[in-house]
Specification:
Layout: H1 2-13, H2 20-23, H3 48-56, E1 64-66, E2 71-74, E3 78-79, E4 84-85, E5 89-91, E6 96-97, E7 102-103, E8 107-109, E9 114-117, E10 120-126, E11 131-134, E12 137-143, E13 148-149, E14 154-155, E15 166-168, E16 175-177, E17 185-187, E18 192-193, E19 198-199, E20 203-205, E21 210-211, E22 216-217, E23 220-221, E24 225-229, E25 232-235
Parallel strand pairs: 2-5, 3-6, 4-7, 5-8, 6-9, 7-10, 8-10, 9-11, 10-12, 12-17, 13-18, 14-19, 17-20, 18-21, 19-22, 20-23, 21-24
Antiparallel strand pairs: 1-2, 15-16, 24-25
């Protein structure tokens, strides 16, 4: 018991820059309450489905329409006929779900967010104004306010050896065991991911950072930095 408590305390102190309070503006998501009582954003992944079901039943009927089983779509949202949406799912106001989007369930799409053609979502929270507009896969991930993933960029959510995901910060040498087999990427507010990039399992990117196109990202990227490659992660001069 003492060993377990010690590990818990160490984890609470680790990776402070990548804790929820330093990654996200919780005023910019309908899912703010899911983050209460937890330290790291990946801790909410197992709760998304049940949270949606409970929240959906409380949404105002004058602004949201229930379509099918546990699917709530804002009346002001735009959903193309060819899009597929499975529950549980909430599409918030003024969001746009474009042609052939594939939402597999356990997804919260924020206000004004864009889910583009042939983009696939599964077990995710997209904060307000997120854009995943072209051929993206986003699974077991949390994307902060105005985060944007360029065309063809994806989150890889399972390690090739199927072991549990560990989040590592190459800058500080700190790490946290997530206990998760499936974890994609945690993107802070206003993160920009370049086209055709792969965010490997356990990637965490701080606020206002950019990833170059064609990147393969692993581990943590600090806030207000530019990821050029694994050996060149540079601070924004005017961040």
């Amino acid at each position: 018991m003492e060993h377990t408590e010690k590990n818990s305390m160490e984890n609470t102190m680790a990776l402070e820059a990548y804790q929820i309070r330093n990654m996200y503006d919780l005023n910019e998501t309908i899912a703010a309450k899911i983050f209460e009582g937890v330290t790291y954003p990946w801790e909410v992944l197992a709760k998304i489905g049940d949270f949606i079901t409970a929240l959906g039943e409380s949404l105002p009927a004058d602004r949201f329409e229930k379509r099918g089983e546990n699917v709530w779509i804002a009346k002001s949202a735009t959903v193309f006929d060819s899009a597929y949406i499975a529950g549980p799912c909430i599409i918030d106001e003024e969001a746009e779900i474009r042609q052939c989007a594939f939402i597999r369930g356990k997804a919260i799409v924020g206000k004004g967010a864009v889910v583009g053609n042939s983009t696939e979502l599964k077990n995710v929270i997209l904060f307000n104004r997120v854009q995943v507009p072209h051929y993206n896969y986003v699974g077991d991930s949390v994307l902060g306010f105005r985060a944007h993933m360029g065309a063809g960029s994806i989150t890889s959510n399972v390690k090739s050896d199927k072991t549990l995901v560990v989040v590592r910060d190459p800058q500080s040498g700190e790490s946290v065991e997530t206990g998760l087999k499936k974890m994609g990427a945690m993107l802070g507010d206003r993160v920009e991911v370049g086209c055709n990039s792969v965010l490997n399992p356990g990637t965490v990117i701080g606020r206002d950072s950019n990833v170059y196109p064609l990147s393969s990202v692993r581990g943590c990227i600090p806030a207000r930095h530019i990821y050029k490659d694994s050996s060149q992660v540079v601070s924004k001069q005017n961040g």
